[in-house]
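Notes continue from the previous slide.

Worked example: a multi-chain complex. Inputs as given:
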Amino acid sequence: MIAAYLRSIARRFLWRAQPEREMEEELQSHVQLRADALERGGLQRAEAERRARIEFGGHSRFKEECREAMGGNAIDQAMQDVRFSLRALRKSPGFSLVAVITLALGIGATVATFSVVNTVLLRPFAFSHPEKLLWIYSQRSDNPRTNFSLPEYCDYRDQATSFEALAGVASFNPSFADSGPPERVQGVRMSANSFAMLGVRPLLGRNLFAEDDRNGARGVVVISYGLWSRRYARDPAVIGRAVNLNGETREIVGVLPASFALPNLDTEIVVPLQPDADPRRNVRNSVNFLRMVGRLKPNMTPQQAHAELEAIRQNLQRQYRGIYTGKIGITLVPLTEEIVANIKSVLLTIFCAAGAVLLVGCVNLAGISLSRAAARRRELALRTALGATRGQLTRLLLTESFVLALAGGSLGMLLEVWGQKTLLRLVPTDLPRIESFAIDWTVLLFAGVLIFIAALACGLAPAWLLSRSDLRDALVSSGRGSTGGSLQSRLRTWLVSGQIALALVLLVNAGLLLRSFIRLSSEKPGFDSTDVQTIRFSLPQTGYDDVAAIAQFYNQLHSRASAINGIKSDALISILPLAPRSSSFVHFTRPDQPPARPEDTPTTNYRIVTPEYFRTIGIPLLEGRNFSESDDAEHPPVAIVSTIVAKNNFPDGSPIGQRILVDDTEGDPRPVEIIGIVGPVKQTNLETPAKADIYLPLQQVPKDGVQWLRNSVYWVVKTSGGTIGVERLLRDTIQNVDRNVAVGALRPMSESVVAALAARRFSLLLVGSFAAAALFLAAAGLYAVISYGIQQRNREIGVRLALGATRAKILGMIFKEGALLVAGGIIAGFAIALALARLVASQMYGVNERDPFSFAVVGLILSLISLVACGIAARRAMNIDPIVSLRCE
Amino acid sequence: MSEEAELLPGTLDLLILKAVSLGPLHGYAVLSRIEQISGQRLFVEQGALYPALFRLVRQGLLKTQWGKSENNRRAKFYELTAKGRKRLREETDWWKRASAAVTTALAARPQQA
């Protein structure tokens, strides 16, 4: 019994021709039997057969129906459904085209944003078990994320037991030279055991291992995938090559995978930390330059680890009184979160916006399919009468929308593949991990799921409607005004309101982003970027052992630059404004007002400049005097502060002439006289309000700052406009003074301002276009539902007109209906937008996420556009001729 | 022509089941049997017959077997299954009730309303 069943199944699948042949034979035998009957009735055999065939008609006409009735296997059925739907779709090319395009754009946009989300947020990190990795900062009263000093790191490393390992990481931006010209690279010094701890596998060669950290170990370096591609064109022979980093020879031993990234640090190169070789190893109050990263032991929680580190910190504070003042705690952040934290909500917002557009598109198509289903009621009813079951019809409708979704989705994927480059140009360059962008299996899988969901979203409503309506009615009556019809129009109404609500949510978000963007771009950064070029360089390690040598270098550079016609002024600065990844700050005190508690010691951004700096970059000198050539080592130390310092620390009068104690050496704080006040400058980004700044003249930099300046300093040049050849000119000017200087890329200051807005511009651009698309789709949906309603009620309107209703009255009636729809949608949209507001709050700047103004304006815009859509639809109603409409029944 | 009634939608299946219940029949014979038992008043479109037959087979109401026709042609014979017999009873009852109701309704006179 079972065997027979299995055989019959097998036969169906393996030998699909058999039922077909049997059917053919049966139909033939039918014709023969009919001919027999006709022959008995007195006809010649030939004539009888001919007539029998004619009576029976062409077989193929109903063979398909027979096949369907017989029920083939699943593949046959699916193929047959696809054939049916293709035929049905060919019959309405307009609808098919609109549907495919809508779905292609919706799916394409959603998949494109997903591929970015996938790369940045979802793709596995280069680390094994990244959830166990914690990024550790020292917490200060004014900044939860500051660095540790080297001895401090060693203490935590040796004492903490909650971690399998604890690594120290510091940024390290040396000049990098081999056979070509030296180049400044951005990398890190990192405990050599950290690779084992992070679980990173090298792409090529080897990683660093604990042995490399030993004092006196051979110098090695690991380079990033980016540097490998850029400088060595992915040449595998790079392993073993000797390079020169800051004058020190090191061997390249490995290449990192493309997915390797650390939070807020560029990792073009990684060199071992070698803590015991560092002169600061035992200098307790030496500079804080290390962050820590640790891997939790399997049974430890971050809370336990935090408690332990906190206990160690308090011990250290007791042990070394006065050294660690201002360090008030420990900040622990999961590593992966730290890498993507800033961009997460932005990307998710954009992704949701794209998804919402797709949803609006699907709803729109569902609406259109509903009207089509209504128009096709007679066709469907006929199929039912001919024996199609309801299930088959539902399947047919779903197959139709599936065919559409598949076509649209494929087109969307093509768009995505073609548009990849454009997409990557739009994406802000500092987006973490974006360099490993690729369309992978996850993206393809997502696209597949999306196509499936889109097919259901488009096809489910009509199919559901079908299951609710009585199709026999449709055949008997003229197919109008039946229950299915009113259910259908109610459903469409709901769908359109839903579209309007979604469009409103997107518009509100876009509006808020736009207001934030306008607010932010009108923020004054505190300097004037017009025609200001910047170039970063590192001096060679030899020959620049004191400040005098650096100052001498600059004097030569300055005199050469002054001789160049297009250069108006030039200066050096240790760290440029709007440099999100660099920071340098010091503690200072007023001798007459020592802080009540050590941790209340104020901090300020710390910048080393040459006298021309303020003029070059357009920071106004508001009071006092500028630095001069005579502010050198021979003269008493002086400083210029920003108005923020004056306001916060000298509310009692002008700070000019006052002395403060600046803690910028390893020794005791040194007294410095304030000689001038300049305007405030945004040092990290445009969002963060300007903080206190202190500027010191290059010639008076204490010994401790020499190495720092030698490794990285910016040359700022104000030109008389024009950028062609400037980079070459400035590079040559620097290298004509000393050809061993490693010169970085030229960057116009205006570009830094643009870059500071890049992430916002990106999200505004995308969310804005998605909102516009949603608005357009919603308006089209509204137009369609109103004009469909008018068409359905053609006769009613005709009667009303014939009975003397004015056109204005009819118009009022249509507008009232439209207004109800729109009002429903807008109210629902406001409710959703208010509920979701919290999620976008972090992306707002200077605007409340529930900003009533934006809400009102967006509501107004949407209402106006909806009215226009209603108006266009209503014009058709106005053209109804009562005579024609009454006759056309 | 006035003698011929139009086949009501949905009644074809019932008529086929009835025709086959009187004994196994091949496709062509089903047509003749329906014409015969309806007193030559109901004619089934030849093209509509086979889809209906196949459907009934698939629903398990009919079973088939190849055999020889009365004039010795190879033909496929249709036969009621137990399920088909049950369905025929149900549909017949339903039809009787429905047509009686319609007949009563149509016989209504003004004073009865």
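Summary box: Residues 478-484 of chain A have pLDDT under 50 and may be disordered. Chain A touches chain B through 28 residues (CB under 8 Å).
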